[in-house]
Design brief:
Two copies of one chain form a homodimer. Chain A is α+β, with helices and mostly antiparallel strands. Chain A folds into two domains: 298 residues, 2-methylcitrate dehydratase PrpD (Orthogonal Bundle), CATH 1.10.4100.10; 119 residues, 60s Ribosomal Protein L30, Chain: A, CATH 3.30.1330. Chain A is built from 20 helices and six strands. In chain A, strands 4-3-5-6 form a four-stranded mixed beta sheet, with helices on one face. Chain A has a two-stranded antiparallel ribbon with strand order 1-2. In chain A, helix 8 runs antiparallel to helix 9. Chains A, B: GO terms for molecular function: lyase activity. Chains A, B: Belongs to the PrpD family. Chains A, B: It comes from Achromobacter pestifer. Chains A, B: This is MmgE/PrpD family protein.
Chain lengths: 450, 450
């Protein structure tokens, strides 16, 4: 059966000649007169004034940075662009309780806003912590069913959380913050059905811009329903199963912030998460034993139950396939001693040494259902010796944060992949670590771009 | 129990001093470095180029009109503003099968786009017909449960329909149109929980801008899931009950367009719909019999079962209350011979002649459940004579369209309410009726504004 969208598209693009529906033009003309008339009648209403001010002002001045670009953009265009560019590689940070990516929802709007208003980094820190808190709390209440049904949790929950974060950054009052949440609910969207297309990263950009918009409009005086989250026609009902929020919100401001307790997981390698524990393990073994690819006869990887589901390519031929391949990940790590963007060029995948290694990497999943994830490596050396390693923690997670060096290595690799000189990013890296003492505008001016 | 949004707002606005979360600033700094780095890495991806182009270009040039305002806005800001201003009075046109307002979803983006691209009115007509078609077809498939659950059908379905309409106006290809639909699905939002606040008209503006955005991004090359509407994680599943679309789409392009068959209902009076049939009836009786308020001793109105549910004010004291009052509507119609914006000024409601008349207007609802709506009027004159009138059809609906004079009267009243001179709108009114022969840019330049 053809997709409904295609049926609609066929209909919509049929008879493209101007005037196909000329016999209905009076209907449309009357609708036009009536709609314009009613809008003119409504032009003096307070909400119309807000919409106008917003469209003409807040959106228009180019005061924020598209990261890695030289020319500034209006704040919302910057939030949108940075959300898209920051999510398209799926390499941005993750939160397990969210089942999604926290920073891509929060940082593009916060940074754009802080640049536009010339705010100190310390305020951005506070706003991020608050936004992260709400994002994870909402997720704890509802995300399991929500994500399973097909919602893109990063962007649906992210819009609300970004609005709260921006409200905090703007110093909005309690009631303005409530309104920002309601306006955010009126924009929350994003489906997993769009995963695997550009629309996935679009949804991240849209979320970032929507959260910003909600806070800016609340600041201008727009109101919304107070129970937009938990009312009978609110967010929890429409996007969830009407789960109660009180239990997850009870600890707000009392318990340690989610950013301290559950924290952020920074992805260490630019490929599928399901390879990361094994990559840590093989790189450790390589270092600890001074191994080269030559020394290794075979590697066998065992993971927890269903731990390798996304790894569908055992003999990848392209960089894109290699992103979902355990044999490639292990082979490249053994051969090169590192995994970075360069590992996923087609030429890198097609190297004879790699093609020779890959058949010697085997894998299977454990049968016993478990929730905690683990990878176990068995390396048989040419001399017959067997090395073993079990990896449970994920490097980059809250329990095992990336070292400053590892973070710098990723940062430099990102600049390189983006076609910029890694050395030009040193100042930003150093100053960003002092974020709470930096003006955001000055800091972001250090991101190299062309 | 307090609203969750309020709990969140209390948390977010507590400890507003900069540096409350300074102990977590390194976490945020690392997230910032990582997120910016990943975005820089992603900056050369095709979707990032689209986002940049869109933010810098399509959104920035002020080429479209805020209706009733002099200064132009960027197209999306215009679509947003016109959506807000056009919906805030709830006086914009209606479609019964949609359970919502078709033109406010379709015309703000179409007009803004047609102005920006300098397109002929005939193309706008075609695009409107196509957008209306999809809007009503989607509604026929799903709107009953969807609206009942709490979705704002005008804006959820409207975003998709507006995207299709704009795709048609831009002359996008079939596959670009499919992508526009998928991008629209990634933005579809709006809840009835926000009704009664500014966020309701905000949602209309957001819908208009989102539909436009979807088509512009698809034109720039953004893709989305082909089955974003009917896939297992698509629109029909997330926003409906996964109803099949094939049955309602089967007649597309074969059966007469919905605009011809179900058509548009133009609201004739600026108050609750539940009074409209009685208003038509009493104004007809007044005209037919040369009645004045003096002649009338009492009026009794009977409606179909539940036909007067929203009419909660029998003795209104303010204009806002009077919008939901049958006794006021009938009294003002009898006294003034018309109902327009001026009828809902507080002074008009508080006139002694009105306060004297209102107690003589009584009403009740019929007990028999019916679906078709009707109002029956019984007017007892001073002389004892009884006049009767039953009204079934709604004036302004497809079956009984407003006369050109009635439409002009509403148009002029709208200008007046918006603080403009009604006479200045004559040229637009006349030329808009020839829409299919007018360039949209020239036509919209005729809308008066300050």
């Amino acid at each position: 059966m053809i997709a409904a969208a295609l049926t609609i598209a066929r209909y919509a693009t049929a008879h493209p000649a101007t005037g196909t529906y000329a016999h209905l033009s009076l209907e449309v003309a009357r609708a036009l007169i009536d709609t314009v008339g009613v809008a003119v009648a409504g032009r003096l209403e307070p909400v119309s004034a807000i919409a106008l001010k917003y469209g003409a002002g807040a959106g228009a001045t180019a005061t924020a940075q598209a990261w890695g670009r030289r020319d500034p953009l209006p704040p919302q265009a910057a939030a949108f662009y940075n959300g898209v560019a920051g999510h398209v590689l799926d390499y941005d940070d993750v939160s397990s309780p969210l089942r999604g990516h926290p920073s891509i929802a929060l940082l593009p709007p916060l940074v754009a806003l802080a640049q536009a208003r010339d705010l100190p980094g310390a305020q951005l820190v506070d706003a991020y912590v608050v936004g992260f808190e709400i994002l994870v709390k909402l997720a704890r209440a509802m995300v399991h069913e929500h994500y399973a049904k097909g919602w893109h949790a990063t962007t649906t929950l992210g819009t609300v959380a970004a609005a709260v974060a921006c409200a905090r950054l703007l110093g909005l009052s309690e009631m303005q913050t409530v309104h920002a949440i309601g306006i955010a609910v009126g924009q929350a969207a994003g489906t997993r059905g769009n995963f695997g297309t550009m629309a996935k990263s679009f949804q991240a950009g849209h979320c970032a811009a929507s959260g910003l918009r909600a806070a800016l409009l609340a600041e201008l005086g727009m109101d919304a329903a107070i129970d937009a989250l938990d009312g009978s026609q609110g967010f929890m009902r429409l996007y969830g199963q009407h789960e109660p929020l009180a239990p997850v919100l009870a600890g707000l401001g009392i318990e340690p912030p989610e950013l301290a307790s559950s924290g952020i997981e920074i992805k260490k390698y630019p490929l599928c998460y399901a390879t990361h524990r094994s990559l840590d393990g093989i790189l450790d073994l390589r270092r600890e034993h001074g191994l080269t690819a030559q020394d290794v006869e075979a590697v066998h990887i065992v993971s927890n139950h269903r731990g390798m589901v996304p790894l569908i390519h055992d003999r990848p031929a392209t960089g894109l396939e290699a992103k979902f391949s355990m044999p490639y990940a292990i082979s490249a790590a053994l051969l090169d001693g590192k995994i970075n963007f360069a590992s996923f060029k087609d030429e890198a995948v097609q190297r004879p040494a790699i093609q020779d290694l890959m058949p010697r990497i085997t894998r299977h999943e454990d049968e016993q259902p478990t929730t905690a994830r683990w990878n176990r490596l068995l390396v048989r050396l040419r001399g017959g010796q067997i090395l073993e390693k079990e990896v449970r923690q994920l490097r980059g997670s809250n329990d095992l944060p990336l070292s400053e060096d590892a973070l710098r290595e990723k940062w430099r690799d990102c600049l390189q992949h983006g076609g910029l000189r890694p050395a030009d990013g040193e100042a930003f890296f150093a100053q960003a670590l002092r974020l709470e003492r930096m003006p955001v505008r000055a800091l972001m001016a250090l991101v190299p771009g062309d």
